[in-house]
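thought: fold this chain, then report.
action: predict
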Amino acid sequence: MDSTRSLQWIVDLDGAHDPKYGTPHRAPIVAATHENFKEYGNLVTDFDAEQIKIVPWPISGRRPLCSGTGIFGGVAEGDFIHDWVGDRCRATSLAMGWGVGSDFFVGRLPKGVNPENKTSVLVREANYHPDGSQCFFPKDKLPFVALFALPGDDVTLEDFVAFYSDGSFGFHILPNVWHQPMIPISQKAVFKNKQGAVHACVNMDMVDEFGKFLCVPLTLDGQQ
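observation:
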């Protein structure tokens, strides 16, 4: 797959420390539970047992989609590799082929934060997939944080929530749930990943829309 074609939504993190963007909005962080995550999807302890939900291809006219069609794009599966390069978090998807040979950076540490003691990260991009659900599971069982917002194109910074996992479970998000790649607290983390192979992707740039970055806590006490 042509990774450059798949990475058109790469955003510039150089401005993360620029005071012109003001104080970043700070997302709340919660320890993920079956109860507080149920609107977004479900927690995952058995990756192989999870079935990806494929959304039928949308129609544009008055005639209905033929029964049983529009769902044969299949499922893409492969490792999702996350690592820290200096003060930036990088993601590479082997399932979709993007990031391979390129640097797709998820977020950047706030100015002055020690890379050896990562307590929060600044992000400006999020996206959702209208063609299917997506499942992430930590292969190394290391703690990480996932950023999500419920579906809706009128999403705001206040809608995003950071969910903390101790590494014993992953996340299966429903179609249209806003998300980013996972954010590791360790230097590197590898996730099992599967999702709809069509990989329709709708993204947002928080700086363009709201004029500021989103600060995602990486610790449950939320202290910077």
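thought: worth noting. The radius of gyration is 17 Å.
final: tokens above.
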